[in-house]
Known about the structure:
Elements: H1 2-20, E1 30-36, E2 44-46, E3 56-59, E4 68-71, H2 75-81, E5 85-89, E6 92-93, E7 99-103, E8 106-117, E9 121-132, E10 138-147, E11 150-157, H3 161-181
Antiparallel strand pairs: 1-4, 1-11, 2-3, 3-6, 4-5, 5-7, 7-8, 8-9, 9-10, 10-11
Amino acid sequence: MSFTFAKTAAALAVIAACSSAAQAAPLNGSISFIGFASPNPSVLVCTASPCTLANWTGLDFPASSPNAFYSATTGSFATVMGASGQGTFSDTTFTSPGQLFSAGGVTFNWTSVTTSGDGTTWGATFIGTATASGYDATAMKLSFSSQGAGTSWSAETVPVPGTIALLGLGLAGLGLTRRKSA
């Protein structure tokens, strides 16, 4: 009986240790950005003209800081950033992951990107991590779209599969421990 209790206690200690590693809450909610490509007609970087999906290689935002405005924040983004404000988008090439924006105390670094475009509307979906003081680093998706001379951005958080997997692993361990004792 004490051996089973010791194994159960050890399993609970592992689960507690894993869950206490994340002491803050993840970011949640959404942010909407708007910016303009001025003084250039576009923020799209292409290796040839006309710009096609095949030769679109990155984004070149205006050098001024701020170069974007945000509004319509929801969830913890509204708590950290407020309802509206200014931010800065960083130039990026699709082969070099890194920081894409910093606004209102939130920073977003991307690790992968997929692109789409039809010659009129251009889109890029960046997957990465958003960080803010007092919150856990949070998996996030940022959807970028551009039409003509104006450019608009929007961002939304995505679920963090690791948290769900950790909980499932802990519950499976408890189930196995109980099955062995029976």
